[in-house]
Specification:
By secondary structure, the protein is mostly helical. It has two domains: 1-34, no CATH class; 35-150, no CATH class. The protein is 63% helix and 0% strand. The chain has helices at 13-17, 45-62, 73-85, 87-114, 119-132, 134-150. It is elongated and about 55 Å long. Mean pLDDT is 85; it is low at 19-32.
């Protein structure tokens, strides 16, 4: 027969049924089970700048024929020269940019886990950092430094 413990009434049900998760006097609130729900969205203009730049880089790299180089003046002639004469350089820059965004998103995942941020907001941080890179990761790192100073 299973021994039933008498617990204070403010303990949640799951702590009353799982003895291995039980904390003395329901001190579960002070454990590492605490989650944070921090998420801060960035200015939407960053999406235009970062994602627009990545899309333009992809167009230059994989579809250089569809770019209207004449509309960009001197800059257009420069990027046309890059697209047709230094294609390997654009391919290298494109894949490095993609790799860095994925790497920064993984760093954001690990930082969210370290900060005990809940699953929904961790997904938000991951996607925002995947699309924006260091702009998003910088906000999360500032929050981590602030939390470190507080504790």
């Amino acid at each position: 027969m299973k021994k039933v413990l008498s617990l204070p009434q403010d303990c949640p049900i799951e702590y009353k049924t799982h003895n291995d998760s039980l904390r003395d006097n329901c001190s579960y609130r002070n454990t590492d089970r605490m989650t944070d729900n921090f998420f801060q969205a960035v200015n939407p203009l960053w999406y235009i700048a970062c994602d627009g730049g990545l899309i333009k880089l992809a167009m230059l790299t994989f579809w250089p024929n569809i770019m209207p180089y004449d509309y960009f003046g001197v800059w257009g002639q420069f990027i046309k020269n890059l697209a047709y004469n230094y294609h390997y350089l654009l391919v290298f820059i494109f894949w490095i940019a993609i790799f860095l965004h994925v790497f920064e998103a993984i760093v954001a995942l690990r930082l969210c886990k370290k900060l005990h941020i809940d699953f929904t907001n961790t997904c938000r941080w991951f996607l925002q950092t995947l699309f924006l890179g260091y702009v998003s990761l910088g906000i999360l790192r500032q929050y981590a430094a602030k939390k470190r100073r507080q504790s």
